[in-house]
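hi! just following up on the protien thing from before. the input was this:
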Amino acid sequence: MKHDLDLIDKKLLVELDKNARVSAAALSRRLRLPKETVNYRIKRLFASGHIQYAYTLVNAARLAHTHYKVFLKFRPLSRTTLDAIITYIRRQQSCANLRVLDGEYDLVFLTVHESPESLQRFFTSFQQLFGAELLVRSVHLVTASHTFSSVVAGLQEGRTLLHGEPSSVRIDALDRALLSAISRDARARLVDLARLLGEPPQTTRYRLRRLEREGVIAGYAVALDRDKFRRVFVQVDVLLKTSARLSSIIEFFGRSGTCLFAYELLGRYDLSFELSVEGEREFRRLLDEFTGLFLDEVLVCETSRIIKDFTVNWSPFDAALP
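and the predicted 3d structure came back as:
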């Protein structure tokens, strides 16, 4: 299905990326449209592929888990071997997202673990299968993630997830099942979630609100098909001389109208940004502006083209692939 987006579609995209669980009734009031029109338009955005899926931002640090961002560089690989590596990583329940790069590294993925031993077990298994292909592995501790709303309208609002000091919110099997279900579909109806859990809607609503209140669920967003918007996905990794202007750099990219994710790291890099730009010219203009403002603060600035990105699943209990 193919259609051109109009102003109403773009307004819906912005609202859904601020809160993918916002109800059609609320959108109807906000945009002054009939509820039936809102429902029809949302379904059409999914059917056309402009919206790929709706996902839940789970802050696993609130569940005593730690976030890591891993960069991998390989020897020249066959397509079959690369696909096998990607599938293996995506089948791990620790995998939150994965990107295929054209740049300094070949793959980068966000992974969530309850202990350093869990991370080590993953790498031990990975090395046994693919160690002969690996040239460089760079592991970073993620201290904070910043997510920004849709760049479709050039308007961005940020959300910050702090990961540096894992804490423990007490959850049970029902909470886990709810996180699992809503991580796969952030727009799942309450009645459907209740039916899946075998609980009354009132109980399901209470559990969901509690997870939101405790900061386990930090928000709901939509993943867009950048090709349909004629945008290019790029990554910028930065090593700073000091952390004095770290917040200013995050603010710079956050206000650029291009930033999707920003990560604060401990490792080879201090910052990693994922940007959605209109093309090479916009990207070079942005980098020139960044360099002009922060040249004296930066030791290393490496850029990569993100060739392909895979399903975001921030739940620490479920793999990105079944």
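Residues 246 and 320 are 31 Å apart (CA to CA).
The two ends are 27 Å apart (CA to CA).
cheers
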